[in-house]
Amino acid sequence: MPIENTAAPIKVITFASLGLNPLILSAVEESGYTVPSPIQAEAIPEVMAGHDLMASAQTGTGKTAAFILPALHRIAEPAAVRSKGPRVLVLTPTRELAQQVSDAATKYGKNMRLKVVSILGGMPYPLQNKLLSSPVDILVATPGRLIDHIERGRIDFSRLEMLVLDEADRMLDMGFIDDVERIAAATPATRQTLLFSATLDGVIGNLAKRLLTNPKRISVAATQARHENIEQRLMYVDDMAHKGRLLDHLLRDTDLNQALVFTATKRDADALADKLLSQGHSAAALHGDMNQRERNRTLINLRRGQVRILVATDVAARGIDVPGISHVINFDLPKAAEDYVHRIGRTGRAGSSGIAVSFASNRDAGNLQKIERYTGQSITAHIVAGLEPKFKPRSQPSTTRGKPGGFGRHTSPDSRHGHPDGVRREGQSHNRFGDNAPRRNGNTGNTGPAGQERRPASSFSGRGHNSGNR
Fold first, then answer.
1. Which residues pair with 329 in a beta bridge?
2. In terms of residue numbers, what domain contains 287?
3. pTM listed for this prediction
4. 194 and 47 together in one domain
5. Sign of dihedral through CA atoms 223, 226, 227, 232?
6. What DSSP element (H or E) covers 204?
7. Residue 9 counted as domain residue
């Protein structure tokens, strides 16, 4: 007698099952998405239920949509208070991330009568004043510039319903904690507050206790579990001249589509971009000393493919999502292991494979150890024939000798399945929706300037690269 299978079928969560407003759901589905990412599947119902939220989420997990979609759902209902002030306020650490959030709100609220305004440092005050003079639904801002408008009495928070702190840990690292608390104090106590951060402990946990009320807590997969579709390489360098020759060699590889090259300081970014231009490369710099128009123009050119090599600092490059970036090169290693993860996450987007190369001298052993300990992965050393380093690292990992003139490309077995995190999931053929998801109109030109940076710059001399302004 056959045994009857009485097990309940596994329920697949879809956007349609989350109860989003039909106008929002239609925009999401028109973009080709049906299944939410883990952070979206967990966060959206909690936010729609009205709970305050603490969520541990990194770039690339779909966190932007995790708060934008329920925020739009809330705005679809009439406001309880009549005023010109925003109903939703999103604070971000950098201008780039602010523009990314604004673009997402506009894209998925396209079927609604919606006004999204960005208030960022570097924008002319008269333009911002004009934008704030009529009713605003979603206001996206960096803390410093928003404080300026609050002090001038130009923003009315009387009808604010939701406050979102995006990448709260980064805002604290940049010295915005007092500004964030001051802004929160200017908003209604009845607001719903959402906090997204890479970590929820320590200072962030204390901040959450002060600003959130009985929050729900959500954590998604740790950073160490991702980037399976990015091949990480290490190249040892003797000095600045050796580093420059290696970089020129790598950038001339025909497999390289577009590259993002990281330097430690603003001054170094300018100097290196100028040097690459003199060598015949299509290169540009991106950093916090550039005005907004220059940054917008640079990012538009990058998205259009008119810039092949972008040389940037850490803060300036946060939030950049350009599908054409096939390679990330750490010309200078970051001081913080977390910054390494954010850097290499600029490639391998939308399930594609990517390559991340890091240059290291004999003085970088400590940084390398911190990075490998943080990611839980060892970075394999590669040698380019004819450009071998003269020094021998004390504990050199296994090396792979590169063929002369070749940089190569590695494709993860899982990356071809098209999942944003590069991991194949059995029984799922749905298109996931997240920050890493493919964009149908990649060359939109909807770009924003980069973040604000506060420390003094150092010279491009090969000394003190990790001590300057980001």
1. 261, 357
2. 227-467
3. 0.59
4. yes
5. positive
6. helix 202-211
7. no
